[in-house]
Write a structure and sequence with these properties.
Largest sheet: 4 strands, parallel
Strand content: 5-15%
Number of strands: 4
Number of helices: 7
Radius of gyration: 17 Å
Order of helices and strands: EHEHEHHHHEH
Oligomer: single chain
Number of domains: 2
Length: about 170
């Protein structure tokens, strides 16, 4: 079951289902919802123990500044969606040049700070990852950037981080 609230977490737990939390929609609720899921979990024909997945927005690039620049596309797109003005994904240049008012700037800054959980380079990655904090069995990442080449680069950097943290050999 996919959810972004404590209610959906409890339902998944009570039904003994796997639970995927939409961290990229509701970052502040991630840890409380997962705690509720685990607290209310009842074994079922599907699962004998809780199984949690966390879905997160991730942009990883060669520098923090570049990652933040690329993440601006998704932040502006989400702002437009929440404002009732959905449309095509803007370029990072368009997002950087957008005339944000004070409230819009605060919304975008909050989104970039809390929902895009890994806008960082391998060299500046925090020692306590989202996976560690949530004790998730699985992470699902989405990378909402304008250029497909930047998306692929981000995925490759995230994969390298995952291999490095697991002790797996580097890709050839």
């Amino acid at each position: 079951m996919l959810g972004s609230s404590g209610y959906s977490a409890q339902v998944a737990g009570l039904l003994g289902l796997p639970f995927a939390f939409a961290h990229h929609f509701s970052a502040a609720n991630t840890l409380p919802a997962l705690a509720l899921y685990r607290e209310h979990f009842r074994p079922s024909e599907v699962l004998d123990r809780p199984y949690a997945m966390v879905a997160a927005a991730v942009v990883c690039a060669e520098t923090d500044e570049r990652a933040r620049f690329l993440a601006g596309s998704g932040a502006l797109s989400f702002l437009r969606l929440r404002s009732g003005r959905p449309g095509p994904l803007p370029s990072p240049e368009e997002a950087a040049a957008y005339p944000y008012n004070e409230m819009e700037r605060a919304f975008v800054e909050d989104r970039l700070a809390t929902r895009s959980s890994a806008r960082r380079t391998p060299s500046s990655a925090a020692s306590r990852t989202l996976a560690d904090a949530t004790q998730a069995d699985e992470l699902m990442i989405t990378t909402m950037v304008y250029d497909p080449a930047d998306r692929l680069d981000s995925f490759e950097r995230v994969a390298a981080l995952a291999r490095a943290s697991s002790g797996a050999p580097a890709a050839r």
